[in-house]
Design a protein that fits this description.
Largest sheet: 7 strands, mixed
CATH class: Alpha Beta
Order of helices and strands: HHHEHEHEEHEHHHEEHHEEE
Length: 272
């Protein structure tokens, strides 16, 4: 049986962003911020996560990797104080705009900080949340930081199946082997690290049917190609797949002719 440290080492070894600098990653997320802010507010994921969080009246949250506030702004409107943390200036700009529009400025404390940086000065909250944002390659450090800021419990959601940026049909069309265990890799590593380090999380699941779609064929094709990191030599296979499965969307735009059953694991535990 691998040790907790061996699970950490494996996670680091398969992280494709492990060799990228914070500045490189920040540029990428800054560019994504405007599109991400508006698209993700429509997700059925948020309603399910809010229900699973089961926050008591007045409980505060720390939202690590808060992005544009798609989770924390609605929670602030329900009366919860928020410590919002993200390393992307673009995301924090979208967050501040959303906070102002919602009129919940007094409920927010906002910090520009990355997983890899010191969290000194960030206050504790009742619940520390990482919602689809565990992007660091050092899960031991990430778990320790979340626990240090959680008075009551930690909640982490991570992929355990298809997600918007992992389309199994595209992967297989490119001749890549992809299996259910591979799709659940991040969840399996995090769970085994937690168990190996003496933590026993409660686990729930969020499933959201999703049809890849966009306002234009060019935009949708670009998103799918970028998500799959299509190589030049794979382009003919990708183009053939896209042309076969794209169709017009009722009311305008385009969509693929299949539905992804995206799945997320929600892990909750008390700090050691």
């Amino acid at each position: 049986m691998p040790t907790a440290q061996e699970w950490c080492d494996f996670y680091r070894s398969v992280d494709k962003n492990a060799d990228k600098t914070l500045d490189e990653l920040r540029v990428r997320w800054n560019q994504m911020a405007p599109h991400y802010a508006h698209k993700n507010r429509r997700s059925g994921y948020l309603a399910q996560l809010t229900e699973l969080l089961a926050l008591a009246p007045g409980e505060s949250i720390l939202d690590m990797g808060c992005g544009p506030g798609v989770l924390s702004v609605p929670l602030a409107k329900k009366g919860h104080d928020v410590v919002a943390v993200d390393f992307s200036d673009g995301m924090l700009g979208e967050l501040r705009q959303a906070v102002a529009e919602a009129g919940v400025e007094e409920r927010f404390s906002i910090f520009r900080r990355a997983w890899q940086e010191s969290w000194d000065g960030i206050p504790q909250a009742d619940v520390a949340i990482s919602s689809r944002s565990l992007t660091t390659h050092d899960i031991q450090d990430a778990v320790a930081k979340l626990e240090s800021k959680a008075k009551s419990r930690v909640v982490v959601t991570t992929a355990c199946g298809e997600v918007p940026w992992i389309d199994a049909r595209v992967e297989r069309a490119l001749g890549r082997e992809i299996t259910p265990p591979q799709l659940a890799r991040d969840f399996a590593v995090l769970l085994n690290y937690l168990l190996g380090s003496g933590r026993f999380p409660e686990i729930r699941y969020i499933e959201v049917p999703r049809v890849p779609q966009s306002d234009s064929a060019e935009e949708l094709k670009g998103f799918l190609a970028k998500a799959a990191d299509v190589k030049p030599e794979e382009r003919p296979l990708f183009d053939a797949f896209f042309d076969k499965h794209v169709k017009e969307r009722p009311g305008g735009g385009v969509m693929m002719d299949y539905t992804q059953e995206t799945r997320w694991a929600v892990l909750c535990w008390g700090p050691l």
